[in-house]
Predict the structure.
Amino acid sequence: MAGFMDLIPGEERSPETESRSVMHEGLIQHIKGELDALRAANLYKTERVLNGPQGPEVQADGRRILNFCANNYLGLASDPRVVAAGRQALDRWGYGLSSVRFICGTTELHKQLEADLADFLGCEDAILYAACFDANGGLFEPLLDADCAVISDRFNHASIIDGVRLCKARRLVYDHGDMTHLADVLRESRDARLRLIVTDGVFSMDGDIAPLDQIRDLADEHDAVIMVDDSHATGVIGETGRGTPERCGVHGRVDLITTTLGKALGGAMGGCTAGPAPVIDWLRQKSRPYLFSNTLPPAICGASLEVLRILREDTGPLRRLEENQKHMRAGLRDLGFDVSRGEHPIIPVHLRRFDDDASLAARLSESLFARGVYAIGFSYPVVPRGQARIRLQISAAHTPAMIERCLEAFSAAGRELSIIPDGS
Ligand SMILES: *Cc1c(COP(=O)(O)O)cnc(C)c1O
């Protein structure tokens, strides 16, 4: 059987493989140069290898570390009820469906999950995708043509930007969260047949919330449609976790919602678009990541149904999440750290007061890790120049004692690096 080793050029080469290997070498050299440039610019990303499941504590480098950088907001990623539901679905429905949805890949589980997601999100219907990245990749092209316009918040997620690139609509951008600018853009785009305002519900770098109530008013005034990507908000924000629309008092009044199953809702994989039934029906006919990519595995559907059941019946995790988030914000502020106000479990700890903010963020992250706290530093180009930060993500699964241990590590590391005064 041909194996990987057979692909490596050997002694005897035909003229074709000879010339191919020369091109190959050129590609390899080029990429090596690009990788070196990334490393030189401190932009090379390394991946920490975990030795166990996702949770408020993780095992890495052979030790237990407090984890403050996962999207496991509700602590459901390794919840025994969720794991059991996934296992049950695996036993009952098998491992894979080996088909796309419209050929032989739709089970009762998929239909039930779509119905439950639509209900949870306050929409008529929902369509599943392998990821929210795919939901965004498959939304704009089927709905919008050249006489339409997409009006996008400047800080929208990469998957929205890529999805919009695939459609022929005019692309307009408004400054982040700037409703005056959005109103201007709406006035200037009056001639478009359909205007779609597109925004993240919660923005991942600051944890700030899109003002959906104001966006709804502007959309109504200008006869535009709203799409919200609520990936960081579904299950997290709003009285019952129904996301940014619930938080802003417009639950059931957002035209289209995309979101992920890969963050608060168990954290495995999968995404969806929810909206009016005819639009969802149209996406099932036309959306390319839906038509040409495999169906979500039954284990994920079964586990996600259990997650939605837990959310409907128990707001305990949401309340714990809120307490933890407030505890951490207040504690960091008391220590003298620069923490912006907010209500989302994303907590940026800013280093913008310092000239060497980027290297300071990296060193603070390292010092925290040495003290048993895993928290990632973000700097340019992920955030604007001069706005480097540590981004903490709080989970309902963190105990008050874990938050305290994190604060102790921040206190020690912050004094060591002269970020906060020594007396703290
Ligand atoms: C995480 C995220 C995505 C991607 O979700 P996946 O399901 O992992 O593809 C899309 N949009 C936003 C706003 C996100 O935060």
